[in-house]
Amino acid sequence: MSGSREAEAAMGQREEAGVGSVGALPRSLVPPCYPLLPCELVKRSMVELRSIERATDVTSLAHQDASESSSSSSSESSDGQVKTTRTTTTSQIRSSHISSEMNASQILRQSPIFRNKTSSPSPEQAIGEKASVRSASPASQTINARLAALQKSGEDGWKNRVKKDNKDFNSNVTLRPKPVGGHRERPVSLMDRMSALATSSQQWKGRVTQSDATKFTVAHKMASASTSSVPTLIKQLLTPTGSPHLERKKRSPCQKIFKSKTGGNIPSLVNKSSPSSPRKNFRRSISTPQDSERKAEAPEGTSVSVPQVDDDSFNAFFSKVPDSVSLNSDDAPELNEADFDHISVTASQLVVKRRSVRVARRQVASRNPLKALAAREDIKSEYVEVKMGTGEKELRRMKVEELSKSSSMAVEALAGLASRENFSAVALKKVENSPVVREMPPYTSLMLLHIKGRRHAQTRLVEPIAANVNQGDDFVLITPSEIYHYKGEFANVIERAKAAEIAQYILQKKDMGVASATTIVEVTEHSPVSRKAKFWKHLGGDEKSEAQPAGPPDEDEYVEAALVAANKVYEVQEDSLVPLPDAWGQMPKIEILASNKVLVLDFGSELYIWAGKRGCGDNRRIGVALGRELWEEEYDYSECDINPITPMMPVSNAKLQGTRPDWGLCAKLTENVETILFKEKFIDWPDLAQQSRIKEVKKELDRYVAPVCELQPCDAKMMLEEVPLEPDLVLEMTHLGRGVEYYDEEERRLLSISTNDFKVWHVSEYGKVLMSEASRNHLFTGDSYVVRWYYLVTATGRTLKGEPSKHNVTGRSRVAYFFWQGRDSSVSDKGVSALMTVELDEERGPHVRVSMGSEPPAFLNLFKGGLIVHQGHQDEEREKKDWKMFMVRGELENEGHLVEIDVNSQHLRSRGCVVLTNLNTGIIHLWLGAKALKGTRDVGNTTTQRLMEAPDSSIGWKSSATKKIKKQYEGAESRDFWEAFGGSKNNHFSLLDDEHSYDWTPRIWHLEAKHDSFQATEIACSYRATSTPNPLPVLQSELYSAKQPALFMVDSGHRVWVWQGWWPDESSDGDEFSATGSAVLRFNFARRAALQTALNYCQLKAKSQAKSLAAKSYKKTEVEVAAIEPQLVVAGMEPSEFTNVFPIWTPRPDVTAIQEKEGRWAPGGQYLVDDILAQLSRTRYSLAELTIKPLPDGVDPLHLEVYLSPEEFTEALGMNQDEFYSLQNWKQTEIKKKAKLF
């Protein structure tokens, strides 16, 4: 080992000493004469890397020597020998450097230190390798061969040279056994493994059945048809590999600026008086106040000179002597030498005596401002006087503005009325029947559009001859009266859809000069002979004409790319056409069409001069002139793959240079009036046809209100099963329930609420007044009050047995404010009550708004059944009455209260209680209805007792009255009771003889259409109690305060009604009149859904009752229960059975008058829901039924014609349905008006 290290060190010194010598070789080139261990191979590899770096330096020196030797002469042989030796050495070192550079990384990567070998070579192979290395001499082997031999010997040969003894150097290394059998050897490198994985990932394709998608392509269709005729165009466009997906270099025309070669009249087209300024926005009205905002054009005026500052004589300001006036020669003075001598004599007299002037130093001499002003060249000595008329315009504007303040008309209308026009000087043009001749129209009398492409199908104008029609594409033939769509047998779906869309757009918009076409004539190979003959006749053919064979399937993509590459787009700049690089040789985008530009677009057979609406007039005229000259000039497409004028002709036969054809199109277009042929050239032009269809669909949705007409009835099962919960007042995140106690099931806590005190203030716009304890229980319907409530909340738990726990926690003292607003209180009083609540709130407690009739149970509990609501105002003088009548309200005794009502026997309810007081005698009659439940009677007893305890001044008792409670039962009233009603008996709707039980609570739902659904919202009483039935839960105001026309469903146990509102007329107060045709139609759809909901509810309710009776029966047998037949009632004409479901019912004469005026319903009428629903679902009416007023229910007033039979439709409108609906909307309206169907 020591000998090898010494040899290695000696070799290193030798290498360092002979870097520049020819005979010195790197260590890697010296054959090993002794075995190298793996630890020494690392050192050897590092030495080899250092030798490679030194070889790089040698190579650079060799390059320098070679360059010097090449410049010297080679006459002498010695010089030639040296040169040869130096060249040989340089080439060897260069090749050694390249091979070392290529194999250095491989030497390290394939070394045994950096990878584990899976197999070892046989001894015979090792001996052969060793012999081959030793036999090869350095002179006969190349550097690459030596490196390969050294690498192989270093990796595997060292094993054969090591003495085999018992010592195992690799005892800690376990080699992987070689696989036995025919199994594949596992890859040893990461690249091999990745390659194996990639190969395996593609093997699944061989196990999957081949897809049959190719059977539905154009290529398969053409193969089935055996079309063997293939044009040579595609062969010339194919890439060398023939693959349509390989990219080819796009060949487009060279971008050159086009200028007028003939000169023409381009300079004369430019208006010198108006430089290239953008066109102003056009305004229709010239008499509106906005005229002053527009910039006036530079008018011509007179030139005015500015007086000079140094003009002392003001000669410039006053009139000058004309230049034409000159002195005569006789008047001119004569001068001689004596005159000049006289001047020199007299000049001394003019000399001023010299003065000594003291010069002020260190002061800069001031400049003469007049001289400085005269020396300025930027100041003009004259200006052009321009009269703008600003004063007149301002006066006119002020006049119109003054008139608009006292007028309801718009400013534009007033300006039009104030303008003065001399119509006598207006000469109208004579109407001529001859057609208008358009300059450079964008269409001709006969056009053949060729649609070809696969990605973005191109629509190009081709010569209208039969030879241009082939079976592989679609064509659209356009004449002034007909539109033909030829469908090629082998055209792809993109071409087919594009051609159909273009033809349909031309038909609908009357585009491309089409005036009287009514339908699109579709032509195929299997069309009738007469239709095809007419098509071929327009193209110069006959009945036997046929389309040319289709090209190969890949032809569409190549022709499309070649056509797009030939596009040329110019912009008019000054007097030339400048190419647009962003749109040259590609499909242009709509963003290039700026409103202030003028463009020229050349598509071969079509050339368009497009002008924006704000483009300069000079640019427009120059664009037209240059566009015409470009069209008349010979075209040159020699740099393109195709001639766009004859796209289907092979390049070898096509003329790439020549003049434009006569059938071509040189057109002038303006912004927003482009043709469909022009729009199809752009890649991102909005799809107007799709937008039009969307607008039409949206219009139909708005007209017919599709979501409403598809309204589904409400879920009757949900309505029947969902029961309102107990009322719960939540203040400061604490549940107070009914104001007495509340049990929290989640936390298993019982909250007890105790009232410490409460105060009541009577508030008005004049202030607030604190009421006494005796009078605070009496509120008035026309006033507002503020109530301050002091309360405590005590929390107690439950024992395991469910009983209240003895341990409780009492919280802090709390405060809440209620501001109660009476039914008849004014808006100002309601606002004052809210403000006073904030002012009185010293503790910053929560505020609760309480409306009369919707009081929460916690509020009613404050009065302990003693709350009495009187009619009128508290401060006003009350009229003296003999009788007062109160309705008993409330579910529990502590929540009971009395509400004063008019003394009328119609307010008696068999399910309720009424308190009637005689103020003269003091007798309090407590009337109990025949069907009143025990809970209702207990509430009546409690409230009556509180009434008797009330102060005399609050009720109005006379001093001589003796208070006494007298109970009256329905059907057994005393005579003095009926005296309050004038002695009349039985003037109310009584349930005395009714055998049904009334231990249930009536339920009412508000049915309304919200967005695209029909919903039912139950109206529940604010102080409802789930433990006891509520006989009269809802007030009449719930129905009449809703937005009309409204729909309600009322379930009164044994009867079910659908209440229908009314249409407010223009004279109704507070209601918006909206009885339009669409509103009536939507309401009819809602009625239909409401009636169907009522039918479903009654049927489901009968089934539920049958199941309940079966469960209660002993034998558990099913019992059949007949379903209730729901009935319809209308507002203003409700029957007594319906009005008695409500505690108080006040007739509405105004609503009754509206219903009587309509003449559709009878007073007190009830109509079966089945009959009304059948009438609403009727789809056929006679002409006589549709012409009478009012119209039948459920009829769409905007489309009465749809209810006629086909025979009556033709008889009434004079045409069938297809012809009628093909007309414009305004024409349909005129025809319906004549037939009295509008």
Describe this structure in words.
Residues 262-290 have a biased composition (Polar residues). Residues 67-100 have a biased composition (Low complexity). GO terms for molecular function: actin filament binding; phosphatidylinositol-4,5-bisphosphate binding. Residues 1175-1238 form the HP domain. It comes from Scylla paramamosain (Mud crab). There is one protein chain. The protein is 32% helix and 16% strand. The protein is of the alpha+beta class. The radius of gyration is 55 Å and the shape is extended. The N terminus is likely disordered. The strands form eight sheets. Strands 18, 19, 20, 22, 23, 24 and 25 form a seven-stranded mixed beta sheet that branches. Helix 12 crosses helix 13. The longest helix has 36 residues, at 1077-1112. Helix 22 links the parallel strand 24 and strand 25. The protein has 35 helices and 37 strands.
